[in-house]
């Protein structure tokens, strides 16, 4: 554990970190670049602001999942601490901050790479797409294979970092939750729908999370939908629902319709649109599980290798 020790540094698990600069911020957290005072190695520090015991529980759940999952395609936890704040005013009610130290990836996110490709008028080659997808899927498999199974629930290019050697690393497990749910009442349906609206990015959200029905089952195949959207983004540099979003159309209706438009005259093989369509089935029960996706990607890679 640890505590704040001045504006420019903090102690976490008996290690001192010097704060260098702000890297970014979201609705629930800030991310700072920090340096280990002893080793001078750079890390990213995620500061999660908690406004209730429930939010504190969610933040610590993210920490515990990271600690339990030891996988090269899942972001590792370096150390963490809880700092009780107790700030209560009319404008702010913060009970605590959770500090999470994770590796700093200089190459940034997969979304950064996609944006750069788009600016340059370039595309990923197909071999690279399959290599990235296989790594991402293997990370997600580690989450799905957890006992009990978890689902990530917010897979998108912004939540995939890349190592110096290009290895994809799935991050931001703050939305991760038990994968298999039985929705029996209208209250349960409304609660899950509200949670998804708050924590699952619209352009990568599965249709069953836009409109949660009663007397239904939800499982880890919400992530398969998101992975299909990520595959589309790697190939065509945007979500398959970007155009609908820009037009102001209902994304709930667009995802349920299941109509995916593919650019004409693409240089990619038919494997790309075929596997995307296979993963983006509006009915979750018709989607593959993660092991099937991994097996199919490996099959495509094997065929491509034999052609060389």
TrEMBL record:
Keywords: ATP-binding, Kinase, Nucleotide-binding, Serine/threonine-protein kinase, Transferase
Catalytic activity: L-threonyl-[protein] + ATP = O-phospho-L-threonyl-[protein] + ADP + H(+); L-seryl-[protein] + ATP = O-phospho-L-seryl-[protein] + ADP + H(+)
GO molecular function annotations of the record: ATP binding; protein serine/threonine kinase activity
Kinase as UniProt keyword: yes
The keyword Protease is assigned to this record: no
EC number: 2.7.11.1
GO CC field: Golgi apparatus
Pfam families per UniProt: Pkinase (PF00069)
Broadest EC class assigned to this enzyme: transferase
UniProt domain Protein kinase: residue ranges: 17-305
Residues that span the membrane, as ranges: none
Protein name listed in UniProt: non-specific serine/threonine protein kinase
Gene this chain is encoded by: 106053575
């Amino acid at each position: 554990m640890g505590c704040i020790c001045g504006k420019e540094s903090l102690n976490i698990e008996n290690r001192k970190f010097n704060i260098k600069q702000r890297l970014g911020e979201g609705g629930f957290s800030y991310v700072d670049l920090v340096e280990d005072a002893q080793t001078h190695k750079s890390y990213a520090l995620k500061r999660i602001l908690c406004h209730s015991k429930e939010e504190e529980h969610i933040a610590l759940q993210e920490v515990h999942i990271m600690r339990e999952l030891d996988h090269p395609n899942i972001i590792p936890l370096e150390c963490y601490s809880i700092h009780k704040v107790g700030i209560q005013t009319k404008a702010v009610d913060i009970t605590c901050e959770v500090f999470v130290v994770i590796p700093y990836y200089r190459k940034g996110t997969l979304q950064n790479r996609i944006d750069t490709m788009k600016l340059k008028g370039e595309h990923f080659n197909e071999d690279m797409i399959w290599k990235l997808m296989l790594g991402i899927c293997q990370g997600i498999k580690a989450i799905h294979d957890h006992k009990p199974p978890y689902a990530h629930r917010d897979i998108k290019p912004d939540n995939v970092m890349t190592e110096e050697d290009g290895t994809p690393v799935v991050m931001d497990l703050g939305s991760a939750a038990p994968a298999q749910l039985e929705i029996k009442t209208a209250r349960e349906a409304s609660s899950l729908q509200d949670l998804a609206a708050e924590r699952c990015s619209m352009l990568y959200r599965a249709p069953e999370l836009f409109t949660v029905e009663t007397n239904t089952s939800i499982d880890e195949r919400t992530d398969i939908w998101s992975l299909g959207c990520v595959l589309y983004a790697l190939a065509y540099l945007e979500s398959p629902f970007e155009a609908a979003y820009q037009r102001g159309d209902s994304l709930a209706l667009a995802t349920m319709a299941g109509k995916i438009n593919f650019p004409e005259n693409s240089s990619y093989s038919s494997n790309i649109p075929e596997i995307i369509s296979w993963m983006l089935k509006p009915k979750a029960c018709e989607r593959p599980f993660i092991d099937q996706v991994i097996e199919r990607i490996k099959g495509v890679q094997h065929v491509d290798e034999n052609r060389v």
